[in-house]
Amino acid sequence: MRIKQLFQSSRPIVSFEFFPPRTPEGEASLLRAIDALRALGPAFVSVTRTGGKPRTAPLEIAERVRGLGIEAAVHVTAIEASREEMARHCELVVSKGIENLVVIRGDRPTDPGFAPPADGFRHGSDLVAFIRERGYPLCIAGGGHPEGHPECRDLDESMAHLKIKVDAGLDVVITQLFYDNDMYFRFVERARRAGITVPLVPGVMPITNARQIQRITQLSGNTVPAPLAAALERAGDDPAAGLALGVEFGTRQCAELLRGGAPGIHFYTLNQSPATRAIFENLREDGLV
Q1: Number of Cα atoms under 13 Å in the Cβ half of residue 128
Q2: Which residue in 17, 71, 99, 147 is the catalytic one?
């Protein structure tokens, strides 16, 4: 099923994101996490591509997910692909019965000698347009940035870029992580004023390790509200304290988003299940999912 159809439901849509692990131990951990979260009945699972992994790696995990009876979406990055390579990949995705892509530009390689293919894709919107022009029977999700793209903190300009991507054929927007819900609600207001009508799904990363979240937000430039920053500092390197904080904050964050009209929650799981599972169960107990 195409995920845009899932958002026609009157109930919020809950989905999870995983990534292909780098080691056999990581793969075993991922399979345990998928098995633990499968019981929650996610509407779909997306599989992202991590650095160094081949373009087919997310597809392999997505096939496993679909074998468990869960709808799947695979990430594709545009920055390093030629049009011929992307055409072959889309044909492979379709041949495997996958109906959903998450299209992003991807991070620019740090290698100073990197040069994108001459016939490649400069922006994510270019790849969205290419897929639509070729007529592949795929639903396309893409990223949105409530606090502006890391390379473009001008919120109006960042929204203009998103509008170009939606007009090129994007069906669903999944946001980058954030910890200040006002950022998401203002993002939705700007998008609707810009004429963007597709579902705008908040992406939430539960806190499982306080120091890890501090590193992630420092790299991405995301805002951490002062009360949360203070709580993270108190939790320090204590894993139990970090997990408890993640569940408590994540439950409040997601409840406010859903009560405020968000069409669902997309959990960035980091291939782990405890925090996501606990938050989901809290939301279900409150009748929100």
Answers
A1: 25
A2: 17
